[in-house]
Amino acid sequence: MFTGIVQIKAQVSEIKKGNEFLHIQIKVPLSFAQDLQLGASVACNGVCLTVVEIQPCEQETTTLHFDVIDETLKLTNLGELAHSSWVNLERSMRFGDEVGGHIVSGHIHDQATLISITKTDDNTQMCFSFDRKWRPYILRKGFIAVNGASLTLGNVSEDTFDLHLIPETLERTNLQSFVVGDKANIEIDQQTMTIVDTIERIMADRMTHSVTPS
Questions:
Q1: Most buried residue, 74, 111, 205, 207, by CB count within 10 Å?
Q2: What distance in Å separates the CA atoms of residue 77 and residue 90, rounded to the nearest whole number?
Q3: Segment 45-68, tens digit of pLDDT
Q4: % helix / strand / coil in the chain, to the nearest 5?
Q5: Helices H, strands E: what count in the chain?
């Protein structure tokens, strides 16, 4: 589990592509990898990945190795990564950690496409398009994780949502480098999904068992 608070953004140092398989190496500060164990979970652009190798490097850095298989490549933007791509990273939460964002599982539901950017000195508005099947769960002022970052939704239409990002969020995440047409991983808030699905199921049951007056 994760909090959706991106801890660092780091660059891909090497990437190896196979048949529906990807091996990613990411160089991180030594402080980020402190006490990290093989098999640990790290969110990479919001995707929960397993650390398969930890390689100490020079100049206070460590290289983390991850394997990505076909199902994850189909659902996420990890297949678009290349050498020097920036990725958002967060280590799994520990007991007692502050939850500054919202609970995130690291299991991506889909991708959303950036369709417009509006910038001012203090605010950046990004508008993303998404598959309409997720509309019941994407609500104004609700939570969504975008490339692993816990964010509050702005205006929502049938197939678009807005994000309003302060300079600090842009500086800490790879959303800063997004251009129109880029795709971001999205994870719908699980609590919202549970509530909406439960209400719909109850309403459907009531309709099924209701008695029509004669």
A1: 111
A2: 17
A3: 999 999 999 998 777 899 999 999
A4: 20, 45, 35
A5: 3, 12
